[in-house]
Write a structure and sequence with these properties.
Elements: E1 10-11, H1 22-39, E2 40-41, E3 44-48, E4 59-64, H2 70-81, E5 85-89, H3 103-110, E6 116-121, H4 126-133, E7 138-143, H5 149-162, E8 171-176, H6 182-194, E9 197-202, H7 210-218, E10 222-229, E11 237-244, E12 269-272, E13 304-306, H8 327-346, E14 357-358, E15 368-371, E16 397-402, E17 406-409, E18 415-416, E19 420-423, E20 428-430, H9 437-443, E21 447-450, H10 453-458, E22 462-463
Parallel strand pairs: 4-5, 4-6, 6-7, 8-9, 8-12, 12-13, 20-22
Antiparallel strand pairs: 1-14, 2-3, 9-11, 10-11, 15-16, 16-17, 17-18, 19-20, 19-21
Helix pairs in contact: 1-8, 2-8, 3-4, 5-6, 5-8
The chain binds N-carbamoyl-L-aspartate.
């Protein structure tokens, strides 16, 4: 008889910044404020200097399959400052991963040791897979190029503490490897949701992934306009302005979707990222460097410079003494922000616990397509966790059927636009573009998606004669 997999009824995971509502983010920041009020170092107000006992008796497990300094140490410090304990597996070479153990198995085992898990992994979507197998809350500490939600919480909290404007009034420039930086993906989603204006200043060929860009435009109501961002020696960076769609701002942007706009007259934040060499086959070529010369332009007069760190040359060290630099404070806030998150996930904070959900996530707005691996189409992103040989047998091909229609991988959230829907009842298929989101949604339980017409035909389906 098949053994039922036990999964606790109600849990709460954080694998994407979008798993948290804006109210929950605000609540978490209030919790962090409260911790700093009672426990900050009087000589360094962003530093937690006292240890409480709120999480006494709880254990945090850190499973790190990729290098980390700040994220792992600040999570461990956060748990210790809350009076809890930590266990860590920080080197894949010394854990069972080296013997070929899957993440799914490791997480199932570690759930029996720890009360909350933090995972860092080189594969996009790994945190979501871990959450499916964990029986305790899972926090994403960075999964491939997908997301790094707790870094974004630190970034937002830094802005909240270190500059006077509300998020919705900010002009935020993000610079560097916008494609490979998971920190950027979580950050731009959050900025868009809080209504900030975003100025994208990618290194050449390193713009936001298409699915992130489209999501800002289609789901977070951003208007996109192109222009130029001035900056000293960085040969007039081409910039894309992503502006939350507010009626009073539409006059700034012409009717065409992409329109050249004047440079933003004030940049409140410059967020710098390094070239993510571990995620690119190509060597780094031109890369923007943020230094005093770049920041000479008057629009940067009152800017705040952020960087998730580590930096490797793209942020000049001469800026360390500049009062606009807040990146070391940003790293320091990592402890209090993670203390707040752990407290609210375990329900041991001053603020109320984060809502728990069956399966660990709030209900999706989109219907979910779910098939065993090898049935039809699988995720188009080669770095998605579903393509990891060890994990493949633990994953299914799961997609959100998003209006468009398009298929969004449940794990890494990469979108697929081109697919063929085959109906297991009629044994016929229709090419992409002919079916509406509504018709696909209705027929979803009997559909199998294939990547091409040929693949559907090879699986024994024939062309559909008329639309359903
Ligand atoms: C970031 C990461 O790991 O994505 N580091 C961090 O957590 N502070 C940024 C990076 O490695 O460039």
């Amino acid at each position: 008889m098949a053994k039922k997999r036990s999964s606790p009824a109600a849990l709460r995971h954080v694998t994407s910044i979008n798993d948290l509502s804006k109210d929950e983010v605000e609540r978490l920041f209030r919790e962090a404020d409260g911790i700093l009020e009672t426990s900050a170092d009087p000589h360094a107000p962003h530093r937690v200097a006292r240890t409480g006992d709120g999480a006494k008796g709880f254990i945090l497990g850190a499973l790190f399959y990729e290098p980390s300094t700040r994220t792992r140490l600040s999570f461990e410090t956060a748990m210790l400052r809350l009076g809890g304990a930590t266990i860590s597996s920080a080197d894949p070479a010394t854990s069972s991963a080296a013997k070929g153990e899957s993440l799914a198995d490791t997480v199932r085992v570690a759930s029996n040791y720890a009360d909350i898990l933090v995972l860092r992994h080189p594969r996009d979507g790994a945190a979501r897979l871990a959450a499916e197998y964990a029986s305790v809350p899972v926090i994403n500490g960075g999964d491939g190029a997908h997301e790094h939600p707790t870094q974004t919480l630190c970034d937002l909290y830094t802005l909240r503490r270190q500059q006077p404007r509300k998020f919705k009034d900010l002009n935020v420039a993000v610079s560097g490897d916008l494609k490979g930086s998971r920190t950027i993906h979580s950050f731009v989603y959050a900025l868009a949701r809080f209504g900030a204006n975003i100025v994208l200043m990618p290194a050449k060929g390193m713009g936001l992934p298409d699915h992130v860009f489209e999501r800002l435009r289609d789901e977070f109501n951003c208007e996109i306009a192109s222009g130029r961002a001035a900056g000293g020696n960085v040969s007039a960076v081409d910039a894309l302005y992503v502006t939350p769609n507010r009626p009073h701002q539409l006059s700034l942007i012409a009717n065409t979707e992409i329109e050249v706009r004047d440079e933003a007259d004030r940049i409140d934040v410059v967020y710098v990222t390094r070239f993510q060499k571990e995620r690119w086959k190509e060597a780094k070529q031109e890369y923007p460097k943020i230094d005093r010369a770049f920041l000479k332009d008057k629009r940067y007069a009152n800017t705040r410079i952020l960087h998730p760190l580590p930096r490797v040359g793209e942020l000049d060290t001469s800026l360390d003494e500049d009062e606009r630099a807040v990146y070391f404070e940003q790293a320091a806030y990592g402890v209090v922000v993670r203390m707040a998150l752990i407290s609210l996930m375990l329900g041991v904070g001053e603020q109320s616990e984060l809502a728990r959900h069956d399966g660990g996530f709030g209900a999706s707005k989109w219907p979910v397509y779910d098939r065993p691996p090898g049935t039809g189409l699988s995720c188009a992103n080669p770095n998605c966790i579903v393509h990891d040989e060890l994990e493949r047998k633990h994953c299914r091909d799961k997609f959100h059927l998003v209006e468009g229609p398009k298929l969004r991988c449940v794990y890494c959230e990469t979108d697929t636009h081109e697919f063929v829907a085959a109906d297991t009842r009629s044994h016929r298929f229709h090419s992409t573009g002919k079916d509406t989101w509504e018709s696909l949604t209705k027929a979803l339980p009997s559909l199998i998606f294939y990547p091409t017409l040929d693949a559907a035909a090879a699986a024994g389906y024939s062309p559909r004669r008329r639309a359903v």
